[in-house]
Sequence to fold (628 residues):
Amino acid sequence: MATYAAPGADGSVVRFAPRYDHYIGGEYVPPATGQYFENPTPVTGEVFTEIARGTAADVDRALDAAHGAAPAWGRTSPAERAVVLNKIADRMEANLEALAVAETWDNGKAVRETLAADLPLAVDHFRYFAGAIRAQEGGISEIEEGLVAYHFHEPLGVVGQIIPWNFPILMAVWKLAPALAAGNAVVLKPAEQTPASIHVLLDIIGDLLPPGVLNVVNGFGVEAGKPLASSSRIRKIAFTGETTTGRLIMQYASENIIPVTLELGGKSPNIFFADVAAAQDAFYDKAQEGFAMFALNQGEVCTCPSRALIQSSIYDQFLGDVVKRTEAIKQGHPLDTETMIGAQASNDQLEKILSYIDIGKQEGARVATGGARADLGGDLAGGYYVQPTIFEGDNKMRIFQEEIFGPVVSVTRFDDYADAVKIANDTLYGLGAGVWSRDANTAYRAGREIQAGRVWVNNYHSYPAHAAFGGYKQSGIGRENHKMMLDHYQQTKNLLVSYSDQALGFF
Amino acid sequence: MDRVAMTEEAAVVLRRLRVAHGPLMFHQSGGCCDGSSPMCYPAGEFRTGASDVLLGNLAVPGVEEEVPVWMSVSQFEYWRHTHLTIDVVPGRGGGFSLEAPEGVRFLIRSRLLTEEELAAL
Fold:
């Protein structure tokens, strides 16, 4: 085991600047208003840097830079852009520890996850889109003899991206890699809860991109996000967040007639059919781990398997086993490589989770384990920690219907296959789902019947590039993490060419 | 009988926001990250329609007009048995909600409606 030194302390692999401005046109630019806001680490609650408080004037300046850079960047060859993306990936890989520790300090998540998941996935994502853009082909259709339709991919131009706080670097990369690969210039706004780690990334990779191709404006949603999302100078807006803001962004987009991609969360069912417990073997062990995945990233994942559906005939046995599994989750200092669950990202997030635990108890749900804030003492006493919590209840309860975004799972039972699918689909959302069964037919049928964009079968929480990710129902519009994302960042140019010298004969 | 209320602390923040931004509205969010939180906007900023339900209007002492509180109809189906109180806690961010730059965040606290209250609604 090892515990990384806190950023800025002796021996730390990373150091944050005391202040971050906006990154515009390849350089750091102070905010127009001269105002900054403090950024605390969720690990201890202490402020470690201050961040430019962006406004419409800063967004405009970033859009100027992006519009200046977009034409030339859009004309580079796919091969040139792929080289840049691969270099970005190489630099990130060479600085992986520093980025992982920075991400943990900004967000509160366990460094074990940033080292093994967030950063390796981000690195691979750039490589994937470097390959995808090289391999992308346009189309040629011979409509009839002498009449040919050419289809070209063209970049949109300047696009806006608003990033969530749960995977600050990885979610930025999910949006940046396809946008840059497709030849767009970007104005990106990080979440105000986690605005710092992306600047560590920019320190490492900023020089690899032409100035103005990637611009980062910090600030609050209402002050910086709104001017970006409602600007008539972007050709697309991408957002990950919640439903009300998603709707508001669609409204702004409608004023400018631009496309949106939205990833708006879920209440993902994780279904355990009885045959899971047919043997006490490696698969049974894996299924229990699959249940405990609700605690991954402190439950702050849009696809958190926050509803567990267990078949009645194995309910007591399986629940007993997964309670033990959950109680074995090691909570501790996020910079300790043994720690499995770290801090929630902010105080208001902590308060919200506790308010849901409260309503769950009021509605009559039974707490099987956890159910309270965790006080880890020492210098972590000011941090935002919650005990991994298992509720037993009914799918109509609010804790089964609302995304708590914490390490809280709500468990219910089902009698048969039809009952399982009915409960699974009784939700406003449709982002993720899990199906666990030793019977391939059952797993396949359930996977197809569940109304969700991503159904994990006999696994959960895996996010490899080249597996499309996105929502059904109120979980959003569009797919990330796959080459089809290139389409979300490209125009289609059709050139319809006649190779005939004969008049039509109409006039 | 009301479905929605606010704490005195929330009223203090609303009075401040009213001065800075004019008339206000809430729309209760669902889903990811900052979801499940009440979003506060300038009145009319967020377009409500047939897919929304008006939960109630908050009479904020010192504020001339009432502050409407909206929620989507589909979400309301799962929330209708609960009474909501808009509170405020120290915090950071939350979509485009107006209070975020002040270092506070509106938060919903809930309790079950009694059978008598449900009958009255």
